[in-house]
């Protein structure tokens, strides 16, 4: 996905979360609902997360320098990892704590002002979060037309994936909160409200784990997909001058930046100048056909052999 598409997704998410967080906190103040308070904290954290992802996108566009010769593309992975930590510690942790606290200190029905506060805010939040999720999925679909689950796992656009996962979890959390406050009010059992808060916390902990695990691989240095490897092999196989190739090593430097190192042996009857021309031609063809391969290195001892012929 393009940087522009990622930003649009994040801007939509931030706008939705700001409005939703305000509504949730107001409802929590008037109703005393722990599930609503947990959801308000969740939306506030999602807003901060969106700002951190924008910061990561901005920093990832910085060019190479002496300390970072391949650029700063992995900045987005670092900030996405920070976002996963915030979701785990502040989102999941606070929600679970608030739920447990309410189990021992329940808010009685007589203390609640109006159940309509909760319904109005939750339904409004579902609409806003749903709209934000649709925008994110629409942008994501432009690059990955089929198979959301596998595409999310294979995608290297950590910022957009984070927004999609967070918004999806937000919609699920809102539904849990809606069920919790309804059961607590009509059955006059505050335990359901507390349980909803705990479930929301568990959901956020799982989301944080998924996000952290995905960005961990990218930070360490994840290779390209099998489809991209097949693309490289197809180009190399088209050259009859190549005797054999192998040991293709790739690593993502960013969502749309890949370094590739390929070992190639050319046929022994080729001259030095012809080998050099072929190396440059292959590198240019790879970069022009698939621009994500920003750094292509071809290792060969054919030039050294040719110089002694």
Descriptors:
single chain, 309 residues, mainly alpha, Alpha-lytic protease prodomain-like, Alpha-Beta Plaits, three-stranded mixed β-sheet, 10 helices, 70% helix
Write the layout of secondary structure elements.
Blueprint: H1 3-31, H2 34-60, H3 75-104, H4 115-143, H5 148-154, H6 158-186, H7 191-220, H8 226-237, E1 242-254, E2 257-266, H9 272-289, E3 293-299, H10 302-306
Parallel strand pairs: 2-3
Antiparallel strand pairs: 1-2
Helix pairs in contact: 1-2, 1-4, 1-6, 2-3, 2-6, 2-7, 3-7, 4-6, 6-7
Instruction: Outline the biggest β-sheet.
Output: 3 strands, mixed
- Please state the structural category: mainly alpha
Mean pLDDT across the residues is 81
| Number of distinct helices | 10
Q: Can you identify the CATH superfamily of the largest domain? A: Cation efflux protein transmembrane domain
Number of strands: 3
* Low confidence ranges: none
The span between the termini is 48 Å
The level 1 CATH classification of the largest domain is Mainly Alpha
| Helix/strand order | HHHHHHHHEEHEH
Q: Helicity, in percent?
A: 55-70%
